[in-house]
Design brief:
alpha+beta; 5 strands; five-stranded antiparallel sheet; single chain; globular; 12 helices; OB fold (Dihydrolipoamide Acetyltransferase, E2P); 2 domains
Length: 390
């Protein structure tokens, strides 16, 4: 086994060990109070026939109700076909059920027997197809790196599902938990996706430094704007959730940090690689010249990524923008001042500032560190590239 492969395996082991240790240190979620009775079980099925359709008023709103015959999966043949009720807002005919639709059915035990309700469409095949296409393209086009990138994605999902969320639900500070989780994710995913090399280590270090700066900026601007994490419908429901009182402001800060991490690793790895390639092309370049040329490349990257970040947040908040456009009696400054919009503004701007700062931080670190390598080191790395090394 080559020394570089051994180092990479060690890095993966350390990342997994760090995630496991974080999981072990996470507090257990508190005992939940008794929940209201819920449907006994959920089943998959397919609509065979529309038996009845009608409209009815429910709390001053028209609702469209369908009675359908559904063939269930995973039940005895003599009980596979049932009558089920589906209700939805009457104003959108496209959402009504049609024969052949895959559905999710809730079966609830009631007096006189079991009642069945269609609660949603069945979307898992489409989601599985999308995931399969993504994995296939990643492996086909990136080969070994695609596999390690998918492994890094798996670690990211593991840290989110098994550490960050349980720790926050268990009463942990959302800001601290999210920052620790983000550091683990950055360490594991960047090394797995880009391999163990000096320039990858520079990208990891720059990402961690920029994340800490982003955390400070988020704390400062969330405090200055008097944001309390109440600017979403989900936050309202979290207040009513049967768990200990959640720190919604901390949850907002944690979300900003995790969102910033999603773009930071892109720009830090790109900048470190750009400076490395400049250094290989001309080993005689000074630190100042490496920094100047690397920053020139990074400026172009910033221009596109800032717009990308804004569009990502704007796309997620598009219904909110439309809502304010429809109800336009409110002055623009009042709409911008609302917590719903102010949260998105602070989230976007903190992420964008972190993105901009990541370029000079990574560039100066790469210029200083990489300029210390002599021509022999550069030739050795090029030889490693020719043999498939990172």
């Amino acid at each position: 086994m080559c020394a570089r492969c051994a180092i990479l395996i060690a890095v993966i082991a350390i990342a997994l060990g760090t995630a496991a240790a974080a999981l072990a240190a996470a507090p257990e979620p508190p005992d939940q109070p008794p929940q209201p009775s819920a449907p006994d079980r959920y089943l998959r099925g397919r609509v065979l026939q529309i038996l009845e359709e009608r409209e009815q008023d429910v709390i001053a709103e028209n609702q469209f109700v369908q009675i359908v015959r559904v063939r269930l999966r995973g039940v005895p043949a003599d009980a596979a076909e049932v009558r089920a009720e589906f209700s939805d807002v009457a104003s959108d005919p496209a959402r009504r059920l049609k024969p052949g639709d895959g559905v999710v059915v809730a079966a609830a035990d009631e007096e006189g027997g079991t009642a069945y309700y269609v609660v949603d469409r069945y979307r898992m095949p489409a989601l599985g197809l999308a995931v399969g296409l993504f994995f296939a393209l990643a492996v086909l086009l990136s080969r070994g790196r695609g596999i390690t990138a998918i492994l890094g994605l798996g670690i990211t999902a593991l840290v989110l599902a098994r550490f960050i969320v349980p720790a926050i639900v268990g009463g942990g500070n959302p800001l601290v938990v999210s920052l620790v989780g983000a550091l683990v994710i950055a360490f594991a995913s960047i090394y797995l996706a880009h391999g163990f090399s000096l320039r990858t280590s520079i990208a990891v270090g720059s990402t961690l430094v920029t994340l800490i700066i982003a955390s400070v900026l988020a704390i400062v601007f969330v405090g200055l704007a008097n944001l309390f994490g109440l600017g979403s419908e989900e936050a309202f429901y979290l207040q009513l959730a049967p768990v200990e009182q959640l720190n919604l402001r901390g949850l907002l800060l944690g979300g900003i940090i995790l969102g910033a991490l999603g773009v930071l690793d892109d720009i830090t790895t790109a900048q470190a690689a750009a400076v490395d390639e400049l250094r290989k092309a001309n080993p005689a370049l000074s630190v100042q010249e490496l920094y100047r040329r690397g920053l020139s490349v990074g400026t172009e990257h910033i221009t596109s990524l800032v717009n990308t970040l804004f569009l990502a947040y704007a796309g997620a908040s598009l219904p909110l923008f439309i809502l304010f456009t429809i109800y336009n009696e409110t002055p623009v400054w009042v709409a911008l001042n609302s917590e719903f919009v102010a949260e998105e503004i602070v989230r976007t701007l903190v992420g964008s500032v972190a993105l901009i700062l990541a370029v000079p931080i990574t560039t100066v670190a790469a210029a200083i560190i990489l300029s210390r390598r002599g021509p022999a080191s550069i030739d050795g790395m090029a030889e490693g590239h020719r043999h498939g090394g990172p």
